[in-house]
Amino acid sequence: MNIGEMAKRSGLSSKMIRDYEKIGLIRPVGRSESGYRRYTEQDLENLSFIRHARDVDFSLA
What's the pTM value of the predicted model, to 2 decimals? Predict the structure, then answer.
């Protein structure tokens, strides 16, 4: 799935997802031939876990 779909399904913004990747909180994802990020169901589970942790006030550290 692309970043727009991932944002919709995870409840995070596209910018936040890119930021999490940039700081190393999630692994860099593969890209399509046209350069778009391609996410998996495992990536969705990881982002959902991070979102839940942030919702209950865990810090990124």
Answer: 0.85
What's the Cα-to-Cα distance from 38 to each of 7, 10, 45, rounded to whole Å?
12, 14, 14
Q: Where are the beta strands (DSSP E) in the chain?
A: 30-31, 37-38
pLDDT digit string (tens) for 7-60? 999 999 999 999 999 999 999 999 999 999 999 999 999 999 999 999 999 988
Residues 6+ apart with CB under 8 A from 9: 1, 44
